[in-house]
UniProtKB/TrEMBL annotation:
Residues 48-86, 124-177 form the Alpha-D-phosphohexomutase alpha/beta/alpha domain. One of its GO terms (biological process) is carbohydrate metabolic process. Its cofactor is Mg(2+). The active site is at S67 (phosphoserine intermediate). GO terms for molecular function: metal ion binding; phosphoacetylglucosamine mutase activity. Interconverts GlcNAc-6-P and GlcNAc-1-P. This is Phosphoacetylglucosamine mutase. Belongs to the phosphohexose mutase family. Residues 475-546 form the Alpha-D-phosphohexomutase C-terminal domain. Its EC number is 5.4.2.3. It is an enzyme of class 5 (isomerase). It comes from Spirodela intermedia (Intermediate duckweed). The lineage of its organism: Eukaryota, Viridiplantae, Streptophyta, Embryophyta, Tracheophyta. It holds the Pfam family AMG1_II. Substrate binds at E387, A388, N389, R518, P519, S520, G521, T522, R527.
Length: 553
């Protein structure tokens, strides 16, 4: 213990906390201007090592990314042994670690927590921390800080997995703890093999045949475009992917007028695309490829794009999975009665929730942040979660997969070629394709493509599942976003007092108006979301509430 204390103190002294920096673990880890983060990343290295020790030396992940934020920002987050986000129970400890003013304070916080959580130091089995980073220029130096934090914990070993998408790292952590191959090659092979098998299961001669095998992808000038390029080499001929904004020299800056966050929030055409792409099926990834949205450039004056957002992806996946379960049920298979649920946040367009409910889906709501949605979705046999911004996945419970595997074997023997057999196989392949650890734009993209091909749908067919209610999102720059607190899955403001009443009064002026605000967990802003009967009304409501926010903060 004394030796460990001395090592931590010595190493932490090399990473002083810059004056005036206040860090909070936020929606998805610590985020700030890249240059200010060395101390925080070093300390998160220690945090990750302690997490592994606490979890019986299971592998955990540490990812250096600021995802959709501007290129000058960076961030760091920890993945638990299951591959999902670090347990929220440890977030207050993460905040205390990151905020300790001096190296001595830091070491004191560590040892108090080690005592409280009974974290065993000095175990024989090494604790493995898998490290990944995106393409941000500050990433390399921050990775070094993380390695030093890990090295400061006796028995912890850093394994650098290189430049990765965030979901790749989460996938690798999960696989490593399952005792299965966790390399990038294996990731690409798993995705491409299950995609190919799913394509092979498409019905011959679908009723419609409007599916166009060509798709254009905006890589946000981040890591996703490059990885998609590698994945494409393994994909079957039935899909032609054209990647733009892949981050190569001269293509532009990470997340600057490109990427899923830009396309979804601004409803605008990203750089690298133009009206000459009108009508094409286009997709957009974010900076670390954990979000995915689709869009179609309309070519019409004024209305630039038709956005096909995370809500529509959720609806498409729900529809497909429900259909496969229905086929199992028709075939008399009890697995067809699996409990299927959708999870959304307050940002979900009201029309999507209505569509899902009409379809007979159970729909649950959580606060923003996939850590909340993921936890909720894992309560179902098959839980599908998506944020409107395109972050989500489909979770299959172990119980359901344990039922599905022998069912596949039984149907292959007794009912080969039956509708039930094909449905069971499709569900199995979806579970292999879609990332079970966290929302993953690359695996989500392949699943969208497989389903559109299965249904013979164009992007317009998909988009016309329902019509979005007009909406608008704005952000208000504030001095201290932490003074805003909310309740009821972020739909009600608790603090500052009086602000909710002001929002209610504005909302009442607009037919079918709905509006909420919440502090961002990744940027220094308060976000405003408004929905109303017309676009002008949604814009007006968002603007009026943004003014109220500005006035009361
Ligand atoms: C992260 C989270 C998402 C969340 C988003 C926006 O995304 O992983 O779940 O929706 O932040 O959060 P906020 O509104 O609090 O800024 P990403 O893609 O940046 O990692």
């Amino acid at each position: 213990m004394e030796q460990q204390r001395a090592i931590l103190l010595r190493c932490a002294s090399g990473f002083p906390l810059p004056p005036g920096v206040k860090m909070s673990y936020g929606t998805a880890g610590f985020r700030a201007e890249g240059m200010t983060l060395a101390s925080t990343v070093f300390r998160t290295g220690v945090l990750a090592a302690l997490r592994s020790l606490k979890m019986g030396s299971a592998a955990v992940g540490l990812m250096i990314t600021a995802s959709h934020n501007a290129v000058g920002d960076n961030g760091v987050k920890v993945a638990d042994p299951s591959g999902s986000m670090m347990t929220q129970l440890w977030e207050p400890f993460a905040d205390a670690l990151a905020g300790a003013p001096t190296a001595e304070d830091f070491v004191r916080v560590v040892f108090e927590f080690v005592d409280e959580e009974k974290i065993p130091f000095g175990v024989a089995r090494p604790s493995e921390i898998l490290l990944g980073r995106d393409t941000r220029p500050s990433g390399e130096a921050l990775l070094e800080a993380a390695k030093q934090g890990i090295a400061a914990v006796v028995g912890a070993v850093a394994i650098d997995m290189g430049i990765l998408t965030t979901p790749q790292l989460h996938w690798m952590v999960r696989r490593r703890n399952e005792g299965r191959g966790a390399s990038e090659d294996e990731y690409f092979r798993q995705l491409s093999d299950s995609f190919r098998r799913l394509m092979d299961l498409s019905p011959e001669g679908t009723l419609r045949n409007a599916y166009d095998p060509s798709v254009w992808v905006d890589g946000a000038n981040g890591v996703g475009g490059e990885k998609l390029g590698e994945l494409m080499k393994l994909l079957p001929a039935g899909l032609a992917v054209h990647v733009r904004n892949s981050g190569k020299d001269g293509e532009g800056i990470l997340n600057d007028g490109v990427g899923a966050d830009f396309v979804q929030k601004e409803k605008a055409i990203p750089h690298g695309f133009s009206t000459s792409d009108a009508g094409r099926r286009c997709a957009s990834l974010d900076g670390d490829a954990d979000r995915l949205v689709y869009f179609r450039i309309t070519g019409e004056e004024g209305r630039k794009i038709d956005l096909t957002d995370g809500d529509k992806i959720l609806s498409l996946f729900s529809l497909f999975i429900k259909e496969q379960l229905a086929k199992l049920e028709e075939g008399g298979e009890p697995a067809g009665r699996a409990r299927l649920g959708a999870v959304q946040t307050a940002y979900a367009n009201g029309a999507s929730t209505e569509f899902l409910r009409r379809m007979g889906m159970e729909v649950a709501f959580t606060p923003t942040g996939v850590k909340h949605l993921h936890e909720k979705a894992s309560e179902y046999d098959v839980g599908i979660y998506f944020e409107a911004n395109g972050h989500g996945t489909v979770l299959f419970s172990d119980k359901f997969l344990r039922e599905l595997e022998p069912l596949n074997a039984e149907l292959a023997t007794n009912h080969p070629g039956s509708e039930s057999q094909k449905a069971a196989l499709r569900l199995w392949e979806v579970s292999q394709l879609i990332n079970q650890a966290v929302g993953d734009a690359l695996s989500g993209f392949l699943l969208v493509e497989a389903i559109l091909r299965h249904k013979g749908w164009s992007i317009e067919d998909w988009n016309s599942l329902y019509q979005d209610l007009p909406s608008r999102q704005l952000k208000v720059k504030v001095a201290d976003r932490s003074v805003v607190t909310t309740a009821n899955a972020e739909t009600q403001v608790v603090n500052p007092p009086g602000l909710q009443e002001a929002i209610d009064a504005e909302t009442a002026k607009y037919p079918n108006g709905r509006c909420f605000i919440r502090p961002s967990g990744t940027e220094d802003v308060v976000r405003v979301y408004a929905e109303a009967a017309t676009q002008e009304a949604a814009d007006g409501l968002a603007r009026a509430v943004a003014l109220e926010v500005g006035r009361s903060l």
